[in-house]
Amino acid sequence: MQISPDFLFNVVGFPIxxxxxxxxxxxxxxxxxxxLINKxxxxxxxxxxxxxxxxxxxxxxxxxxxxGEKASFIYTWGVSFFLFILISNLVSQxxxxxxxxxxxxxxxxxxxxxxxxxxxDLNLTLALAVLSVIATHCVSVKYIGVRKYITKFVTFxxxxxxxxxxxxxxxxxxxxxxxxxxxxxxxxxxxxxxISTIYGLCSFVLPLPFMALEFMIAFIQAIVFAMLTxxxxxxxxxxxx
Amino acid sequence: MEIIQKFGLETKLFLFQLINFSIIVFILKKFxxxxxxxxxxxxxxxxxxxxxxxxxxxIALDNAGxxxxxIIATAKSNADKLMVSIKVSNDETKEKAKExxxxxxxxILEDARCKALAEFEVxxxxxxxxxxxxxxxxxxxxxxxxxxxxxxxKLMLRVLDKMYEKNTN
Lengths: 241, 169
Known about the structure:
heterodimer, A: mainly alpha, two-stranded antiparallel ribbon, 7 helices, 5% strand, globular, B: mainly alpha, 3 helices, rod-shaped
C-alpha cells in the first residue's frame, strides 16, 4: 500500500483522491452537526448539543483559566482542530473505508480504496499544521504587537546571545510544521496499516482490539493537536516570553 | 522531490485542504461557537442568578427564623409580664375585695350594734315605763288600804322619784 493518497478521477482539472472524498465526508458530518445544533439549540441541551457543548465548554474554560482575555480567540481554533480531526478519524472507522474499491485506469485488478482516512493524507495534516502556525502568529501579533513580535526572532540585545535565541525560535517555528503534520499523519496512517494487516490475517473478532485502539488514537491525536495549538498560541501571546 | 512525491504532496490538494479547513473554521465560529457561547453564558448567568437567589432566600430564611425567635421571645416575655401583672392585680383585687368585705361586714355589725343598742334603749325605756306603771298600780293597790289619800300621794311620789332616779342611773 502506498503512502500517498490514491488518485480516483479529475474534476475540472482538480485531482480527486480517496482522502479528498473522506475530507468532504468529514465536512458533511461537521455541517450536519452544526445544522442539527442550530435547529434544536436550547437552554436545556439534548443529545448532540450536550456532547458538543461539553467539548466547547471544556476548551473554553481551560483556555480561560490559562489565557484569560485571549481565550475567546484561542479556544475557537483549539475546538475547530479537535472537532475536525476527531470527526475525520472517527469517520474513517466506518465500514466501507478501505474495503470499497474503485477501479481507475492505472489501478490493478483489486482497484484502489474509494475512501481512506482524511488525516492519513499529508496534504491535510500539513494544511492543518500551516493554519495552526499561521493562526498562532496572527494571534501573537494581535495581542503583543508587531514590534514585540519581531523582537521574539530578531533582537540585538546582549548581542549575539539573543540573536542566536531568535534563530532558535525561528527554527522551532519551522519544526512545528513538521511535528504537527507528521505526528498526526504517522499515527493515523500507521493505524490504518495495522488494521488492514489484521483484516488480512483474520476478519472476525481479531481486529476489534485494534479498532478500539484506533478509536483511542483518534481521540488522543485530536486532543494533542488542539492542545498544542492552544499552548503555542498562549506562549506566543505571552509578553514575558 | 522524490520524498514529496512519495508522500503525495501536491499543491492543488494542499490548497484545497487549506481552504476547506478555513471554511470549516469560519462555519464553526459563526454557526456553532457563537450560539453555543450565547447559550453557555445565558445558562451560566441563570445558574449564578439562581445561586444568588437561593443565597438570598437562605439569608432571608435565616433572618425570618431569627425574627421569629425574637418575636417568640418578646411574646414570651410579654406573656410572662402579663401573667405577673395579672397575678398581682388578682391578688390586689382579692385583697381589696377582702378589705371591702371586711369593712362592709364591720359596718353592718356596727350598724346592727347601734340599732340593737338603740332598740335596747327604747325597750329599756318602755320596760321602765311599764314597770313604773305596774309598780305604781301595785303600790297604789297595796297602799290604798294602809294610808290616806294624802299620805299615799306623798309616798307614791317619793317612791316614783326614787325609781326614776334609779332608772336614769
